[in-house]
Amino acid sequence: xxxxxxxxxxxxxxxxxxxxxxxxxxxxxxxxxxxxxxxxxxxxxxxxxxxxxxxxxxxxxxxxxxxxxxxxxxxxxxxxxxxxxxxxxxxxxxxxxxxxxxxxxxxxxxxxxxxxxxxxxxxxxxxxxxxxxxxxxxxxxxxxxxxxxxxxxxxxxxxxxxxxxxxxxxxxxxxxxxxxxxxxxxxxxxxxxxxxxxxxxxxxxxxxxxxxxxxxxxxxxxxxxxxxxxxxxxxxxxxxxxxxxxxxxxxxxxxxxxxxxxxxxxxxxxxxx
Length: 273
What we know:
CATH class: Alpha Beta
Number of strands: 17
CATH topology: Glutamine Phosphoribosylpyrophosphate, subunit 1, domain 1
Order of helices and strands: EHEEHEEEHHHEEEEEEEEEEE
Strand content: 35-45%
Number of domains: 1
Number of helices: 5
Largest sheet: 9 strands, antiparallel
Structural class: alpha+beta
Mean pLDDT: 86
CATH superfamily: Aminohydrolase, N-terminal nucleophile (Ntn) domain
Helix content: 10-25%
């Protein structure tokens, strides 16, 4: 299965990805050799960098290592292909515009494509590639569109309710861990993933950090996050804990965590309305 990473911070942070731990996950070690991608918000826009080759061989990722970027919301994905060809169109994250805002999505799992298409009809959005993940993103946007097309950022509770209902319907189709951002908030849905003893929860872990900007908000092998704007608050999500000795919390089966302003503002089980 693929690996997911997300960061949501109170203030834009300096983010540096290196070719250490992340490249090993992306091809130098482990099975994740089929592509990688990073999406980060800069104001109202999103920079998206992705490739259909191993992160361990990437000159693009080396450039990012040498030139840190600033963002308050980042989503990363390292691909182990289960469905779809090894093409750029099938590499994640995916991004689309809805309601004048850019939305970003990344999925870890393997959904039954036939049942997915039978369960979720598409609205105005169509996949560019041929993965179950991109189809699920398009189906999610179709369900969120009525909220966003009213002209303003929808209430957080209304967005969470739609996402919760969608996630509950997705889980019977296969492992359905996903990260979704709409520029205002980050939504983290945990389900199950491949472990040494089989496919089971947890599918994602989260960590909340508060620290002074001068000391750096977070440091792990392959990743550094820092801010020079005083005290920084950060919510991190990852398929597996990125550091030892810190309170990474495994998400329960079907749990949704919502982060905004560097804090968790909502958490709990997702369910049908």
